[in-house]
Structures are given as C-alpha cells and as structure tokens.
Design a protein that fits this description.
This protein has 228 residues and is mainly alpha-helical. It folds into 2 domains: 81 residues, no CATH class; 111 residues, Orthogonal Bundle (Cd81 Antigen, Extracellular Domain, Chain: A). Helix content is 61%, strand content 0%. It has 9 helices and no strands. The chain is elongated and about 70 Å long. The relative contact order is 0.10. It binds 2-acetamido-2-deoxy-beta-D-glucopyranose (3 copies). The site of one 2-acetamido-2-deoxy-beta-D-glucopyranose (NAG) has 2 residues, from loops. This is Tetraspanin. Pfam families: Tetraspanin. Keywords: Cell junction, Cell membrane, Cytoplasm, Disulfide bond, Glycoprotein, Membrane, Signal, Transmembrane, Transmembrane helix.
Length: 228
C-alpha cells in the first residue's frame, strides 16, 4: 500500500514536471523527457503493487501470480542491464560522455541542466568531462580568439575551489582559467575531469555500490513467490 501511494506520487511529480517545463532542451539532451520516464515508472509500479496488495487482501491467485511474474521480469531486466553495463563499460562511458557534453553545450539554455552540472562539479570536485578545457564546448565559454562572449575562456563558478576565510564570494574566479595550464588552474578551480572523479568515487565506494544493489534486489527476490 505504501509503494502504491509512492507510485502515485511519482506519477504526479512526472505530470507536474511535464506541464511546468517551458523548453524542450532537457528532453533533447536525455533523448527521452525524464518527466515521461517518471510517469511510465510510476504507472508500471502502481500496476505491480496493485496486483500484490489487492491480490493478498482478496487472496486472488491470478493477481498474485501476475504480481510475482511482473517482479521476476523487472528483476531479470535489472540484472541484464547491470551485466551489460559491466561488460560494455567502454560504451557506457561513451554514452555518459555524450550526455555530459550535451549538458555542457546547453548549460546556459536550461536551468535544470545548469543545476545538474553545478551539482555534479561541486559534489565530485571536478570540472568538465576530461578536464576544465571541456567548457569550450559551450558557446559562452568557448576559448577561441573570435568569441565575443564576456565569459570567453572561463569555467562556471561551480568549478571553483572554496577559499577558506573568504567573506565575499568571488563568482568570477573561473574567468580565464582555460588559458592557464593544469598547475596554474589548480590554484583557483578543480582541474580534474568528472569522468576520472566518477571512476575514483566508484572504486572507493565499491562496498556501498554493492550494498545498494543488494538492497534493491533482495526485496524483489523474496517477493518472487508470494504463494509459498
Ligand atoms: C584536457 O583533456 C583533453 C582531452 O582529453 C586533452 O587533449 C588536453 O590536453 C587536456 N588539457 C589539460 C590541460 O590537461
Ligand atoms: C569554439 O568555437 C569555434 C568557432 O565557433 C569552433 O570552431 C570550435 O570547435 C569551438 N570549440 C570547441 C571545443 O567546441
Ligand atoms: C592541486 O591543489 C591541491 C590543493 O589546493 C593539492 O592538494 C593538489 O596536490 C594539487 N594538484 C596538483 C596536480 O598540483
């Protein structure tokens, strides 16, 4: 019942996000609108939890079997995606790079993408995908001489390392860093690319990643056969 309420909430958030969104930049970036993904996941989840909840209440074998079969299907799909992601890690990395590249290109066009990139860069203490010079992918930060933008050769503020004891935050600390070499840039920003940071994060949190996967899988496996 709890999961049923939760799935309705997901659908509501998805519909709200779909209606609210004025531009389609995010949809173009993700190929599919994340709001639509939320709605689909919510509806499927509502269907499955409905079968489990009503099936158990009414002792309806057909509903319970549908519930069990759906969960098995979902679990096997997750397993397949995890295994494919593991064996095709190079392709996974390429797909992620394409996504981050689009997010950088459209950084100024869409507030959601801007917030997402800022969050990633601050959280992982990184800048760009390979390194900070990736911000040239963006029209505003592009470092070619002919670029008339006032932010030419800059990187966003979210790349900046916090200065201890600084009372007035310098939002222009990333200006011109693309012309600097790695060591110079390291004085004001995180020069490391987010790809390397993500790999480092996964390596140092392997136990957490495994525990999360197990935590997701266990309830599904134990619910495989509600008839026993
Ligand atoms: C940044 O990454 C690009 C692509 O991997 C590389 O060509 C370039 O030399 C790097 N720049 C710095 C300053 O590390
Ligand atoms: C920067 O802009 C120039 C001119 O528009 C373009 O040729 C170049 O490819 C851009 N740089 C990057 C890294 O995309
Ligand atoms: C960059 O600066 C940080 C401290 O601000 C330092 O710990 C780190 O070793 C530096 N990295 C390089 C490559 O110099």
């Amino acid at each position: 019942l709890f999961l049923q309420v939760f799935s309705l909430l997901i659908v509501a958030i998805g519909v709200y996000a779909r209606v609210q969104k004025a531009t389609d930049t995010v949809r173009d970036t993700f190929l599919i609108d994340p709001a639509v993904i939320l709605i689909v996941v919510g509806v499927v989840m509502f269907f499955i939890t409905f079968c489990g909840c009503i099936g158990a209440l009414r002792e309806n074998i057909r509903l319970l079997k549908t519930f069990s079969f759906s969960l098995t299907l979902v679990f096997l799909t997750q397993l397949a995606i995890a295994i494919l992601g593991f064996f095709y890690s190079d392709q996974t990395r390429d797909a992620l790079e394409r996504f981050v590249k689009k997010a950088i290109v459209h950084y100024r066009d869409d507030l959601d993408l801007q917030n997402l990139m800022d969050y990633i860069q601050k959280e992982f203490q990184c800048c760009g995908w390979n390194n900070y010079t990736d911000w040239s992918w963006n029209l505003y930060f592009n470092c070619t001489h002919t670029n008339p933008s006032s932010e030419r050769c800059a990187v966003p503020f979210s790349c900046c390392t916090p200065v201890p004891g600084e009372t007035v935050i310098n939002t222009m600390c990333g200006f011109g860093v693309q012309t600097q070499n790695y060591l110079e840039a390291n004085k004001s920003i995180y020069p490391v690319g987010c790809a390397d940071r993500a790999v480092m994060w996964i390596d140092s949190h392997l136990l957490l990643v495994g525990a999360l996967a197990l935590g997701l899988a266990l309830p599904q496996v134990t619910a495989f056969n509600p008839l026993t």
